Every structure is written in C-alpha cells, then in structure tokens.
Amino acid sequence: MCIRDRYTPVAITSAAVSTISGKCSKALFVRQDGGVVAAILRLSLSLLGYPAAGKERMVESTLAIAMIGALLCDSAEARTLVHRIVMTILKRNPLQAQAILGSIVTKKSSLDTPLYKATMCRLVSVVMRHANLEKKVEHSNTLLALIRPMWATPETVALGVAAGSAIGALCMNAAVSDEVVAEICQTAVRMAASKSTNAQGGIAAIYSICTAAPTRIDDEFRVSAAKAVVSVMGFVANDRVAALWIMRCAVLFSKHTATKDIIPLANLQLIMRKVTDNDELLLSVARAVQNEIPAAAETMVAFPDRSGIWTEIGFYDADIEDESQSTSFI
Predict the structure, then answer these.
(1) CA-to-CA distance for 34 and 26, rounded, in angstroms?
(2) Residue 275 in 3-state DSSP?
C-alpha cells in the first residue's frame, strides 16, 4: 500500500480504493457476525482517508446507506466504528445525511431490542449534529414520532437517555416547529426534575438541546433546565447513568453566563468523588469537567483521563463515548 501510494498517481489509487470500498459496502448489506462487521468497518474507515471524486463519491454514498445495517450487530466496537465512519462521510459530504436518515426510517422495523433502538437514537444524534442539519430535512418529524415514545416510556434507562439525546438533536432542524421544540423543552425540564426513572432521559435531552440547538432556546430555558438538574443531584448521586449526564450538563452550564453559577460545587464534587479508577466512561467525563471546572476534581480519588475513543477522534462526543461502552455500561 505504501509503495503504491508513493509511486502511483492519485487517480489510480482512488479507483482501487473505490473497488475495495464497494465490496465492503456490499458485505455490510448482509447480516454478519459482529467481529466480521468490525473488521470490514475498520478497513472502510481507513479507506475514507483517500480523496473521493466521481465514481468514488457514488461508492461513498452506498457506504453511507450501508451504515444502518452495520449498526444492528452485537459488537460495540462495530457500532462505534459506524459512528466514526458516518462522521467522516459527513465531514466530506454533508449531503449524505439525508440518505443516512432515510435508511434509518426504512429499517425501523428491525429495531427489535432496546439496544438496537438506543444505538439508532445515538446515530440520529450524531448525524444531525455533525451534518449541522438546521435546514429542513423531511425525515426529522418522522424520526421524532418514532423516538418520542422511546423517550417518554423507555424500556430501559439506557434507551431513555439515548432517545433524549436524539430528541434534543432533532430540535435543531427547522422542520420541527417552534411549538414542538417548546413542548419538548418543557417536557425535558419536567422529566429531569421528576426524581423518577425518567429523570435521566430528561437530563440527557437538556444536554442535547443546549448542545445541538442553542439558537432555538433562550436563557429562561437554560436557567430552568439547570435548576432542574440541580434539584435531583442529591437524589440520583448514586445512579451511574444520571451522574454521567449531570457531569456533562455541568460542563455545558459552566460555559454560559446565565447558568455558570447555578451548579453547586460541593454537590458536583460529591458525585465526582464516587468515580472509580476502572470506570473509563466516567473518568472521561470527569476529565471534561476538570478542564472547565478544575475545583470540581480537586477532591477526586481517581485520576480523570480521556477515554480511548476521545483520544482517537480528538474531541469529546457524548453519543460516541456511550456507544463505545454500550455493551458493558448501557
């Protein structure tokens, strides 16, 4: 490969890459063992490092559509690679977002387990955010109708938070009316403050709305959302999923003038002291907290550190962090 790259014109190299990518895409349309899917996706991700034009763009489109099939497998590594490939494709060509979302709508009958439903929700969030889909997308309301019941009455806590993440990301799209966004915001705050099993889904939705759709909310919502999160900090401090999303919200709120002083430092320190050395997911978000609120990590016993996936992609992404740990954690 290195010799070919050095001495062969890019056009020929791209053509060869196109052929291999096409075969990878074809293999992903058939249900495969998770290990096999992961191997194909690792190769596909490496091939996306080559330039694409003409026929290669067509192959890239096929690969994008194949991602939903690859997502529905039993390998957390494979599912995480799907997200990374989708991010890479969208960076090269954001127009692929509509095709990916359309393939999710088409495959909705295959979402027959809470795990598959949760991973689909995270993919929706990744697509919306990384394609920056603010202009109207025809599938937005269809996906909203599909995901809202998963958020309102989730089969598992894991599905509730994944659905909350997707709901918040969909709010960024202009196809979702202002009235619907306002209703979702009110529901998210109410859920977050409920001190019930739905609280985690509400907190996740708040994080996602504030992150993905900041232009569709105001400071009144930000303040009420922050206060809702604070109201349950003591109640859910021993809940690992809730602690994860509370810490994410703390980072978010610390960056905004209207909310930076609302999260009590002592409450946040209490949550962070319970993070253990063998918990990569919580250690990673603790590092994100430490970067923005250094005092919050001063009393920690464990050492906050970036997760492997954070190091690989170069930034913190909640959905991809969760997907990478989805088998053992959620």
Answers:
(1) 16
(2) coil
DSSP character for 214? G
- CA 311 from chain centre, in angstroms, equals 16
User: Residues near 11 by Cβ (< 8 Å), separated by ≥ 6?
Assistant: none
159 φ, ψ (degrees, to nearest 5): -70, -40
**pLDDT at position 5 over 80:** no
> CB 298: neighbour CB atoms within 10 A?
12
Q: Determine phi and psi for 233, rounding to 5 degrees.
A: -60, -45
Other Cβ atoms less than 10 A from the Cβ of 324: the count is 26
Q: What is the CA radius of gyration of the chain?
A: 20
Encode pLDDT of 193-208 as tens digits: 988 878 999 999 999 9
Say how far apart CA 298 and CA 253 lie, in whole Å. 19
User: What phi, psi does 188 have (nearest 5°)?
Assistant: -60, -45
Task: Give 49-102 pLDDT, tens digit per residue.
Answer: 776 655 556 677 888 888 988 998 889 999 999 999 999 999 988 989 999 999
Q: Which of 160, 249, 233 has its CA nearest to residue 201?
A: 160
Dihedral class, residue 57 (left if φ above 0, else alpha if ψ from -120 to 50, else beta): alpha
CA separation for the pair 259, 36 (Å, rounded): 46
Biggest CA-to-CA distance, the chain = 64
* Structure confidence at residue 54 (pLDDT): 57
CB 123 within 8 Å of CB 86: yes
Instruction: For 152-182, write each residue's pLDDT tens digit.
Output: 999 999 999 999 999 999 999 999 999 999 9
Structure confidence by residue, pLDDT tens digits, 116-126: 999 999 999 99
Distances (CA, A) of 202 to 105, 222, 279: 24, 13, 23
0.85 surpassed by pTM: yes
Cα–Cα distance between 293 and 210 in angstroms, integer?
18
pLDDT of residue 197: 79
